[in-house]
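call fold(seq) -> tokens
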Amino acid sequence: MPAPPILWLVLAAVLLLSVLVGADTDGLLLIAGVAALLLTLVAVLVPVVPPLAQVLLFGALVGAAYAWMRRWSAGRQARVIPASTRAELAEVISPFDAQGEGRVRWQGQSWAALNLAPDEILQPGTQVTVMGREGTRLQVLPRQDSLPD
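ret:
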């Protein structure tokens, strides 16, 4: 005997309500709630699907959606600072040491920075070009004269 659609609907309601109260930290409950809603439709439209097949379909939907979401969010984590003529320039506010580490002012804030050309000395007041970011540390190069002001 197929599982009644009301079971899937109740499961979906419980899962989605738990998302609303903040119990979902990684999106799994939201995915499971949406999958349970889809299974409600399957149970209504195709009432002859056995309960074991419904449970397997539910597990497959949740697993596939969660894997896709993790992969998608991992790709979004590696963000690059958007290039612009003004935002990519920073000013050295403390001298860089022998390891190429120092501090710059970028977009009005003080940032730890790594000089990607450590053989070139960067003194306070020097303008540098922001090439990227690694966590909370900017990667900078000495400014070339060909860049716009």
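The chain has two domains: 5-77, 89-142.
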